[in-house]
Amino acid sequence: MTRKTSHLGEYAAMLAIWLGLFLLFGLFSDNFLSWRTLNALANRIPTLAVVAAGMTLVLIIGGIDLSVGSVLGLGGAVLGVAIVDWHWPLWAAIGACLGVGVTAGTTNGVISVRLGIPSFIVTLGMLEIARGLAYLTTHSQTKYIGDSVAGLARPVFGLGCSPAFLISVAVIGIAQLILTRTLFGRYLVAIGTNEQAVRLAGINSRPAKIAVFGLVGLLSGLGAVFYTSRLGSSDPNAGVGLELSAIAAVVIGGTSLMGGRGSVVSSFFGVLMIATLEAGLAQVGATEPVKRVVTGSVIVIAVILDAWRQHLADAKFPLLKRLLGLKFAQKP
């Protein structure tokens, strides 16, 4: 079986699971199985989709970014203040928002990679820093922007989906191509699989790792633009808990928390499942605590399945793994 065939089979399985989940909620709600529900899902997932794309790359290299929600909130705060208080043109405000995301992400990467501090700790600190800066930037007030960026969230006539959704799909496609068709993408997989072997092969892994954290910051800034356009306002509390949803979507999509394996397209299916789960639970009248319990349970189950799959792989190919490690170690 070729890698392409394997990926197609994986995508087909993910699509089947999502359709099954969609039909399941349709049995419990008379209004769930409709084009209106599909359009609503398409128009609410762009923010999570682009953040999950970046999170996929971070997890593939064996890292994690817990600050994406707060960075999104800070980017949205800068976007709102730039438009409302500073009277900047839209393109400049969006540029500032994206710049904030890149700066925060790159800072995470530099501190974690250069100083050898676990990304979990660094991004946990950035989570608090970025959220505090969001409150300071807006003086803890919501900035009502109005129609300045609302066009991104409005469904395109004749398509039923918004420009934000189309952009997010394009981001997913580009990120998948980078991961599977470029030397940079192969470096990321190799780093997540065995970073020591990569170093022994004479490859400096630091620039690639820093670039990945900068990229997830950029995509968090883009997510802030999408989030702000959908609400028509800039809320300093935006993105609270988004990191958990992004990690859940990526893990459900099959990306390993141990690094070395993942697919951006599969993460997109994970986003669809998370969005469908949230929408379906809301339709059947589930309370917020119930939603959190169900979402958390899904994450735990996905992690258990990932660990089980990794255990089977190690048990099946122990000799091959040792030979590959020896080959990398002997390479000058």
What would you note in describing this structure?
With 332 residues, the chain is mostly helical. The protein has one domain: ABC transporter involved in vitamin B12 uptake, BtuC (Orthogonal Bundle), CATH 1.10.3470. Helix content is 75%, strand content 1%. The protein has a two-stranded antiparallel sheet. α1 packs parallel to α11, α8 packs across α13 and α10 packs parallel to α12. The longest helix is centred in the C-terminal third of the chain and has 29 residues. The C terminus is likely disordered.
State the helix count.
Answer: 13
The CATH class turns out to be Mainly Alpha
The assigned structural class equals mainly alpha
Q: What string, H for helix and E for strand, traces the elements in order?
A: HHHHHHEHHHEHHHH
Main sheet attributes: strand count, strand direction, barrel closure: 2 strands, antiparallel
For the biggest β-sheet, the strand order reads 1-2
Mean pLDDT: 89
Radius of gyration: 20 Å
Number of strands: 2
Quickly count the domains. Answer: 1
Can you name the CATH architecture? Orthogonal Bundle
| Terminus-to-terminus distance | 32 Å
**Poorly predicted tracts of residues:** 319-332
Helix content: over 70%
Inertia-based shape? globular
CATH topology: ABC transporter involved in vitamin B12 uptake, BtuC
- Percent of residues in beta strands? under 5%
